[in-house]
Design goal:
The protein has a single domain (about 25-110), classed as Thrombin, subunit H, CATH 2.40.10. It is built from no helices and 6 strands. The protein has strands at about 30-35, 45-50, 55-60, 70-75, 85-100, 100-110. The chain is globular and about 35 Å long.
Amino acid sequence: MAALEETPLESKPQALSCELRRLRRTKLPVPVRIRPEDVRISEEIAMARNNSRDGLYFTTRRNVYYPGMRLRMAFPYYASSSGIHPECTAHVVRVEKLSDSEWGVALKVIFR
């Protein structure tokens, strides 16, 4: 029986990054209305950069979001439509600074 040769760690191929999402993302910019549960923070209409059935990622110029923050969102949101925009409850899972004036916010849907 032939012995297996051990490959030195340095020459082994790098592992691919592990995808933690359960569902695929759709990369289609769509407007979303965000209403924080904290009434001191006003709602905003932002642009969702990608989304899935259980979450979305949007960009904003407001530095008011933090991990664990609960909010209501209407997605997709079109101001010119009938005015009926079902909302779901979500919480912030990640906030990242994209530039001096822009933030990226990842949300996970809790209740539909």
